[in-house]
Amino acid sequence: MAGSETRMLLLGAVAMFGPINGYQIRRELVSWEIDKWAHVNPGSIYNGLTTLARQGHLERHDLVDGTREVAVYEITTKGRAELLQLMVRALEEVDPYDRVAFHTAFAMLPLLDRAQVVHSLEVRKRVLQETLDGFPSPRHVGPEYGPPHAFRSLMLWRDSVATELAWLAATLREIASGALKFEQGEDWGWEPPSDDPGWQMNVDRERYRALLDR
After folding, report:
1. Which terminal residue of the chain has fewer beta carbons within 10 Å of its beta carbon, N or C?
2. pLDDT, tens digit, for every residue of 163-191?
3. What is the model's pTM?
């Protein structure tokens, strides 16, 4: 997985759930199955957090929580600016052969306001249409595209762009109608099940905030 996408995942997780400790970040991201679709080795998460803290994108606090010491992370102003840049780029730029960056940014959509999301997805929609128009017509089987099986492979990429374009148009309609709710503070009509670890993470977050005098 590209380094920028790993950074986006870690910065986004801390922005959504911080103050949060490293184990909680790892558990949350593993629950997203990032090892399958984002190709992230869960063991690399701790190294990534250390790097981001060293670069000033995260702030690490070494707290005494009861009888144990725990490293807790918060995102900095510099980190928020970096995250915004990474997410906007991932939403707007189109690579028909690799959508990991887009899936990463879309998974963290609640970190952006509605106006930014709509703008970036409209940009992506235009670029997708331009990308689709750049593919040869399915009716074109000229030798300049190689042997027939190679052309059929190219059509698979073309059809994947067309499918995403239709999905994106439907997504934008749902956002415009209010059917798709994603911003923090909105009633999504959904909450995690009672045994979800996120409930305990919320309790821990409030305790960390108290220890940090937030």
Report:
1. C
2. 999 999 999 999 999 999 999 889 998 98
3. 0.90
